[in-house]
Amino acid sequence: MKHYYTDNTDLISEPVVFQFDYRGHILKFTSDHGVFSKAMIDYGSRVLLDAIQADETKATLLDVGCGYGTFGVCLKTVYPWLKVEMVDVNERALDLCRKNAETNNIQDVTIYKSYIYENVEKSFDLIVSNPPIRAGKEVVHQILEKAYEHLNENGELWIVIQKKQGAPSAKSKMNEVFGNCEIVKKDKGYYILKSKKE
Hints:
globular; two-stranded antiparallel ribbon; Rossmann fold; 198 residues; seven-stranded mixed sheet; 31% strand; alpha/beta; 5 helices
């Protein structure tokens, strides 16, 4: 069986298009089989998008496991000064991500294939992720641990994770790595966790 966190371009393609209102901006997304949350922006991602704030001290953002571009497209729309990079291991997701950036007139973004941070060369002011829980704890913890070396000083890691799918474990790992972890928001079992590189 093919999963959204693997490269699965050989799946049947039946694209779906939907709209998403993010802070007064009506955005249009195309999705398809083989990507996470095919039919709509998932609830956890919505909770993170509602919670996250960025001011102009934050200039760069990396979306790890970007899927069809939810975080990168939404946050670049609201914070147009951000230079955004989006990475995923799934070629179909990356193709959709490029399409969705173009559809929503998102420029100054870089979208490329990377297993977690494997092909990421820069460091950033913000890293965001809705980690692929089904890929296993080891993958999730790699996203959390290795974020540290890809953040600038005062950079922030923001993630969304359900309590029952490992939020306490993720919080513990982020505390271990960063020396801090704030629960920014809890909503229907979803935790928004933030760590700062101090």
